[in-house]
Amino acid sequence: xxxxxxxxxxxxxxFSSLVKKVDAARAAGKDIINLGRGNPDQPTxxxxxxxxxxAAEKPETHGYSPFxxxxxxxxxxxxxxxxxxxxxxxxDTEVAIIGGSKIxxxxxxxxxxxxxxLLLLPDPGYPDYLSGVSLADIQYATMPLLETNxxxxxxxxxxxxxxxxxxxxxxxxxxxxxxxxxxxxxxEEAIQFGKDHNIFILHDMAYGGIGFEGEKPVSFLQAEGAKxxxxxxxxxxxxxNMAGWRVAFAVGNQQMIDALRRLxxxxxxxxxxxxxxxxxxxxxxxxxxxxxLTELYERRRDVxxxxxxxxxxxxxxxxxxxxxxxxxxxxxxSEAFADILLQQAGVVVTPGIGFGTHGEGYVxxxxxxxxxxxxxxxxxxxxxxxxxxxxx
Length: 392
Description:
It contains 15 helices and twelve strands. It has helices at 5-8, 14-27, 46-56, 71-85, 101-112, 129-136, 160-165, 184-197, 226-229, 236-239, 254-267, 273-284, 288-310, 334-345, 371-382, and strands at residues 33-34, 95-98, 118-123, 139-144, 166-172, 200-204, 230-235, 248-252, 323-327, 347-348, 350-351, 362-366. The strands form three sheets. It has a seven-stranded mixed sheet with strand order 2-8-7-6-5-3-4, sandwiched between helices. A three-stranded antiparallel sheet has the order 9-12-11, with helices on one face. The protein has a two-stranded parallel sheet with strand order 1-10. It is globular and about 60 Å long.
């Protein structure tokens, strides 16, 4: 069988090795508490499922969808942005419907960049950003996200050549994996930087619906001038527990939206119309389910943080997303520490090195298990003797 050079040059998937380790531990009969995954553990709200069921029974949903998604869904997206962020979006020219945000994130370099062009990426960052780099045959440079700068990129650290060569920049807040949030002032700084150097911006807002202590994450499009130079990508996977439904959208700059739409015309038709009807229900109907989900994650967060501090693990509480970004104890790499937790405690966490060079020294812990299992997981870690109430 022939495999293209492009496919052979794709980056190895770090997390496939983690999955193999977890599967091996389970096969050995261990009771595993998996805090390393990123897949929501709660079901899709019933009213969204009902909307799918009713739509699927209608023959008009059984044919091809319009290439750009249904007008009704694009209008629902525009209404969602007006209601949630007080941002005006033109549903006809400023909305692209996407079969999951991963597709959009990988597609955009193909749609906007030429071989050899430079993409700026956060480090640590979502690993599949690199898939778009390989498929588009482009170059990339990383922007370190450091705790000393609240896990925000410092644009002054980029070299003159990088500023001149870059065509596109990815930002992601609330951030995966650090769970950091960004302010409107930061987005305005990024927009001005992009305008000064002719760099377009994609803001990945996958966790935009999940903010704690009454603080709602800021939309990139709320910053002045955002649509002049960028788009925001929003998925229904996390906010509405619809990860398997594969539905997302991009909003913002007309040229970037048009580029995404044109590429998708060649690769896809669109999403199953009945799923689009369910997405309309999610975006348009009562948002109590989002409030309840956020409260659930916040309770889990509080248990995790209080239990970690109880055993002497010095940790910072996340402000958003369903992840916590925790420092590993001295003397361990992130992967070695994760291996010990898996093998000796049956607890899965994700090594920070899997998200980039600057992820070393941390592990990502998901709030995707019950409060009881989170409490049990930390209790198991305590028995290893790595931490003590007096600190390490």
